[in-house]
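tokens incoming
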């Protein structure tokens, strides 16, 4: 989602894609020792929707985070091919096969960075808004299949990482999507509305953050103008 927006794809196109998206558009069942499916079809989706295929061609700077399964460390992509980085970042363990890039075997970035606020801060963002949707399977009670076991285990681990990623966020939005599973594609409209509602509720705080940025920019520009005038005065005096 972030990469599509950063590429310059029109918001209407992104929303229309979400409304018609199905599992077959991003994945193909291919049972192996490392996973139940391949997410290679994501490449085709990116070709159809995005306006850029390389990080360097994005209209908005962006980072994509994946997890190195050998070291357990985050791997942050900011250059090169978008498709491979996004596929790696979306390779949820147990379901999707890991993605190999170079010598690394990579999986879902949510394992080490549930909300990649630190990566955004490292890119130079003055203010960071984190959007946390959690990891739900849409069911209550005891898990009934292996995917629910894995997803709930990951969700439990992520709960203890809140303090880490929230530290780098100026504002955190939490859309009400607890009743939706990650693959509830038929409920895209509900998910979109939940996100819009969360943003509307936070609008005063968002505007306050933007106001601070504008004030800081004005202050910087005014200071530069003053310094320029002083330098001109000094030059005239020395002449």
């Amino acid at each position: 989602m972030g990469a599509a927006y950063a590429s310059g794809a029109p918001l209407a196109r992104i929303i229309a894609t979400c409304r018609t998206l199905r599992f077959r558009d991003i994945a193909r069942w291919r049972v192996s020792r490392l996973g139940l499916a391949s997410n290679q079809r994501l490449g085709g989706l990116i070709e159809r929707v995005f306006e850029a295929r390389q990080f360097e061609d994005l209209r908005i700077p962006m980072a994509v985070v994946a997890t190195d399964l050998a070291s357990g460390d985050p791997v942050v992509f900011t250059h090169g091919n978008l498709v491979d980085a996004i596929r790696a970042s979306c390779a949820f363990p147990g379901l999707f096969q890991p993605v190999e890039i170079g010598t690394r075997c990579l999986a879902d970035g949510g394992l080490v960075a549930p909300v990649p606020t630190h990566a955004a801060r490292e890119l130079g963002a003055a203010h960071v808004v984190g959007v946390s949707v959690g990891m739900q399977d849409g069911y209550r009670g005891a898990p009934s299949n292996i995917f629910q076991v894995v997803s709930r285990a990951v969700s439990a681990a992520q709960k203890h990482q809140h303090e880490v990623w929230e530290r780098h966020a100026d504002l955190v939005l939490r859309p009400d999507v607890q009743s939706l599973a990650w693959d509830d594609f038929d409920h895209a409209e509900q998910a979109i509305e939940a996100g819009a509602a969360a943003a509307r509720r936070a609008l005063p705080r968002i505007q306050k953050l933007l106001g601070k940025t504008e004030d800081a920019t004005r202050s910087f520009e005014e200071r530069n103008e003053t310094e320029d005038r002083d330098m001109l005065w000094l030059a005239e005096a020395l002449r």
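note: Confidence is low (pLDDT under 50) at residues 230-239.
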